[in-house]
Amino acid sequence: MTSIHFISGLPRSGSTLLAALLRQNPRFEAGMSGPLAGLFGALLSEMSARNEFSVFIDDSKRQRMLHGLFDNFYADTSAEVVFDTNRAWCTWMPAIARLFPDAKVIACVRDMPWILDSIERLIQRNVFTPSSIFNFQPGGTVYTRANGVAAQDGMVGAPYDSLKQACFGAHRNRLLLVQYETLTNHPAKTMHAIYEFLGEPAFEHDFNHTDYDVREFDERAGTPGLHTVRSTVKAEPRDSLLPPDLFNRFIHDAFWRDPRQIPEGLRVVGRQVCANAAGM
Q1: Terminus-to-terminus CA distance in the chain, angstroms?
Q2: What is the pLDDT of residues 36-45, one digit of tens each?
Q3: Which whole number is the average pLDDT over 42-67?
Q4: Half-sphere exposure (CA, 13 Å, Cβ side) for 156?
């Protein structure tokens, strides 16, 4: 494994689409959310003082074993650059900086109401298939579902808090926020910005033939379509399924859209890309 970078951020915000595009480059390996972040946390926990034998494990050993987790997981890849995807990586920014000094983190973001709308759309589309998102429990309302995923330990709330921690933390210089709307409206300019951030040579992506099939995983999760990537990258405007009061409750959570709230050193793909496109 020559080098590694990470894809993180918020759910339903384009991480699988971004991985599908990156994997078009024969030098790259990328995919949907994988198990490494969970294994990383579990291994770190088992090496802590909760284990009576941790007295035999110092920080140097911990660092070698955690690094070895990545080396072994990707031992069979021929790619020069690996992108590991998981929403939890924003939580581990200090650890990433220690383990992989040259690694960058791409965080996919999207306006919160539209994330909730996307989840609700999946639930209503698969009305006869209870989803793992809600522990396979049927019933409930759009309000209970939105409140559940937006809670601090929820599918959306937890990554959102991790994202803010990373954005305002000491390692935000290695973080790039990619807005879903920018990726789908201006994919070529967005990918150019990503390659520039990574320090990688430009690559001509095909935005009309993206291909990434994980239907088996989605069906086992009881949520067909969860990681579906359309063949053509384009924005598709639609009306929201959320009642207006619920939609408006989360409308101001996109702090990355407000220049006054963006800390110095944090890069956001979106404003400059859109400005350049408007001037074309």
Answers
A1: 40
A2: 999 999 999 9
A3: 90
A4: 25
Cβ contacts of residue 204 below 8 Å, gap of 6+? none
* pLDDT for 131: 80
DSSP state of 263: P
Instruction: Answer yes or no: is 52 within a domain.
Output: yes
DSSP 232: S
Angstrom distance (rounded) from CA 175 to CA 242 = 31
pLDDT at 54 over 90: no
Total domain count for the chain?
A: 1
Tokens of 30: 């990328």
Provide the domain limits for residue 85: 3-269
Q: Examine the pLDDT at 123 and tell me if it is beyond 80.
A: yes
CATH code, 213: 3.40.50.300
pTM for the model: 0.88
Domain membership of residue 277 (yes or no) is no
Within 10 Å of residue 121's Cβ, how many Cβ atoms?
Answer: 17
Cα 192 from Cα 142, distance rounded (Å): 38
Would you list the DSSP string of 74-92? TTT---SEEEEE-GGGGGG
Classify residue 159: in a domain, yes or no.
yes
The number of beta carbons lying within 10 Å of the beta carbon of residue 5 is 25
**pLDDT > 90? residue 7:** yes
The C-alpha atoms of residue 202 and residue 209 are separated, in whole angstroms, by 18
Residue 248, sorted as left (phi over 0), alpha (psi -120 to 50) or beta, turns out to be alpha
E strands in the chain = 3-9, 28-30, 81-85, 105-109, 175-179, 267-269
Residue 222 confidence (pLDDT): 55
* Residue 215 within a domain: yes
